[in-house]
Amino acid sequence: MTTHARFASNAHAARAPRRPRARANPRARRQGNGGDSARRAVSDGGLDAAREAARERDVAAKWAGGASKASSSSSPSPSLVDRAKRAAGRAKTGEDASTSSGEGFEGESCLLGDGIWERLREEAKTDLEGEPALASYLYSTVLAHKSIEDVLAFVLANKLRNNVLLDSQLLELFSSQYKKYPELGKKCLADMQAVYERDPACDRYLAIVLFFKGFQAIQAQRVAHSLWLEDRKALSFLLQNRISEVFHVDIHPGAVLGQGMMMDHATGVVIGETAVVGENVSILHGVTLGGTGTSQGDRHPKVGDGVVIGANVTILGNINVGADTKIGAGSVVLDDIPEGSTAVGIPAKVINRGAPQQPSLSMDQTSYITDYFI
């Protein structure tokens, strides 16, 4: 035998004893113990894929609320009018409406339903179940956060950012102001309830926060106003500029906006520096609360509580629009309007007095106006 043949034979003999170590397939042994042969025959790659799919299902179930956690029995929030009636009853008995059952925020003028934040999350989970393509969007905007303030900070930061104003900077700014001024969150809830109650096209709180630019513009202006009061004028003007560019709403950061405000459609709304808007006011698109002349100082309108201002109304100068007043669409208001009046025309004239309390809640924009002829 040649040297090469002997070497090959020895090498073969050296390898031969190792073969028994690769014993019978362990799957076969497990099968003998009663395992499911088809399931046990899954490859390692298949197992990894199955585990990954299971994890994805678990995550989806978690953020959708899961079958065991889903709650479709949440009762709708009581209406603003019902809350106001309850508050009036408590006022007669001397009970403090602002602290009873958490129904009031800063007095009785704007009382909201309970559990808006919980309702918002449930609506997001419902949408996630019905439209899985929105999972990432709904998680990042709503479900990943712990409060309505956190949601607003995230949504507004992403709406108002640009190439040189980073969303991370804006997120830090909004979060800081919401923590510093808790009343901003309370006013936000009042504004949400106002839109939910008064806009017949709105039946969900989630849509208000994510899609209603009038609501978003008001919340951004409230933060800008808090900066204005801190004498951080440059930053507040920057926010005003971005609000105008993004939402087509120009509200000076010095303007004072009461809670429970609804700005429907919002496009083209202009509110000047010294304007004051009361609580529970409804404003439609194209409204101007402007000054006249070039003099500085207090030069813009003062709008009382419960007022409804129709589309494309212009109110000029340091004049007073009394509480519970209705201004017809397209009117130009140049003089004071008494409380509880209906005014229409160019220039606006008072055509009726004794209007119902807070017509802004009913959004009735035509009563008495249709009987008026110029």
Automatic annotation (TrEMBL):
Is Thylakoid included in the keywords of this UniProt record? no
Biochemical pathway:
Amino-acid biosynthesis; L-cysteine biosynthesis; L-cysteine from L-serine: step 1/2
Cellular component annotations (GO), alphabetically ordered? cytoplasm
Q: Which GO terms describe its molecular function?
A: serine O-acetyltransferase activity
Which residue range or ranges hold the Serine acetyltransferase N-terminal domain? 116-220
Which superkingdom does the taxonomy of this entry point to? Eukaryota
Protein name, as recorded: serine O-acetyltransferase
Tell me which species this is from: Ostreococcus lucimarinus (strain CCE9901)
Question: The organism's lineage?
Answer: Eukaryota, Viridiplantae, Chlorophyta, Mamiellophyceae, Mamiellales
Name of the gene: SAT1
